[in-house]
């Protein structure tokens, strides 16, 4: 049976989450996709248990070891979403910067020396001061993953440093609450609910698809991003998803099976 827990984060600078299949010059996701949070938690857990392997073989391909946690018949990581705490009532600002990026090594025939070749490209930066990640995980891993979550130190690229302020349990809505409408925050696949309004959509890699972690034909899913409380009818939420209460009578909508 799945369980859920939340992680409060403080961001210590802008973050960059490059969409897949883009060149050196690229924008950034406004908010990190579920697969990014899966990777952050997996590597915190791997460090916790002393496993530093960064590449694994999966069905003949070289992949991120996260693939073993999501592509199994009983996945360890089921879903993740993020609620922006600051700013809350507007989408986080995005800007761009220039970086000097490594391209390849060129071998000169005459001198037989390696010349490092670089290029210059712009990258996107998203500014978030604090946020809450909600994870849905397999119940037999809950205790260890909550402990490991304290070791999350970055989101996205290595420059996206974060610190963990709090790790705590959150519960799904399993019984009626006397109202049909809830206030939803965070993001969720756009077609899992009905009759809501948001002003931000992002095409994220499918967090349950192997190609997200192995490269290749990456499947994208359109997510609705609720950066401010959004009214959603409980009865219109698909059966595979559940609202999970986080704070101030607000909920996130996450996959539960």
Folded structure, characterized:
The protein is globular. It is mainly beta and 257 residues long. It contains four helices and 13 strands. The strands form four sheets. Strands 10-11-9-13-12 form a five-stranded mixed β-sheet, with no helix packed on it. Strands 4-7-1-8 form a four-stranded antiparallel β-sheet, with helices on one face. Strands 2-3 form a two-stranded antiparallel ribbon. The model has no long low-confidence stretch (mean pLDDT 87). α1 (34-49) crosses α3 (142-149). A hairpin with a 2-residue loop joins β2 and β3 (61-63).
How are the secondary structure elements laid out?
Elements (H helix, E strand, L loop, with lengths): L1 E10 L22 H16 L6 E3 L2 E3 L3 H4 L6 E10 L7 E14 L6 E13 L3 E9 L3 H8 L12 E9 L10 E9 L11 E5 L5 H4 L5 E14 L7 E7 L2 E6 L2
Parallel strand pairs: 9-13
Antiparallel strand pairs: 1-7, 1-8, 2-3, 4-7, 5-6, 9-11, 10-11, 12-13
Helix pairs in contact: 1-3
N-to-C SSE string, H for helix and E for strand: EHEEHEEEEHEEEHEEE
Which stretches of 5+ consecutive residues score pLDDT under 50? none
CATH topology (fold) name: Alpha-Beta Plaits
**What is the makeup of the main sheet?**
5 strands, mixed
Number of strands: 13
Distance between the termini: 9 Å
Strand content of the residues, in percent?
A: 35-45%
Count of individual domains? 1
**Mean of residue pLDDT?**
87
């Amino acid at each position: 049976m799945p369980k859920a827990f939340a992680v409060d984060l403080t961001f210590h600078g802008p973050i960059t989450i490059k969409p897949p299949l883009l060149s050196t010059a690229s924008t950034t996701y406004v908010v990190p996709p579920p697969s990014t949070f899966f990777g952050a938690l997996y590597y915190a857990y791997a460090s916790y248990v002393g496993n530093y392997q960064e590449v694994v073989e999966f069905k003949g391909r070289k992949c991120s070891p996260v693939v073993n946690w999501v592509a199994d018949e009983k996945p360890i990581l089921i879903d993740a979403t993020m609620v922006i705490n600051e700013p809350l009532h507007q989408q986080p600002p995005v800007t761009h910067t220039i970086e000097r990026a490594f391209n390849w090594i060129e071998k000169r025939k005459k001198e037989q020396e390696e010349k490092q070749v670089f290029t210059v490209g712009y990258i996107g930066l998203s500014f978030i001061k604090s946020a809450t990640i909600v994870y849905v995980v397999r119940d037999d891993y809950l205790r260890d993953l909550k402990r490991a979550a304290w070791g999350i130190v970055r989101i996205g690229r290595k420059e996206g440093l974060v610190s963990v302020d709090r790790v705590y349990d959150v519960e799904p809505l399993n019984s009626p609450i006397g109202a049909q409408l809830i206030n939803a925050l965070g993001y969720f696949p756009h077609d899992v609910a009905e009759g809501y309004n948001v002003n931000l959509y992002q095409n994220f890699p499918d967090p349950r698809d192997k190609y997200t972690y192995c490269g290749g034909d990456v499947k994208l899913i359109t997510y609705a991003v609720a950066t401010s409380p959004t009214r959603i009818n409980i009865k219109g939420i698909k059966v595979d998803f559940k609202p999970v209460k986080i704070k101030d009578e607000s909920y996130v909508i996450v996959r539960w099976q």
